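Collaborator request, handled under Task 6.
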Amino acid sequence: MNITYIETKINEILAELEKEAMDCILNDSLDKKATNLRMKPIVSTKQILLNALESIKMADKLAQEEISKMATK
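Structure tokens returned to the collaborator:
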């Protein structure tokens, strides 16, 4: 599994989410409630992506450890 590629793509998505969040924050036509409503899905999506990346890295690490154990037998 190419973790570097996956991490790069997730970081690209996160950068786009940050741009979207900044657009939302800087939009003067939105009141605080509307801004918060627009920010919630962005924040949730970011957290989901970060958790997914962490899970992928952990699974890869465990797989590598398992491969190492099998190679030493």
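The cover message to the collaborator said: "The mean pLDDT is 94. The chain has two helices and no strands. Please let us know whether this matches your experimental observations."
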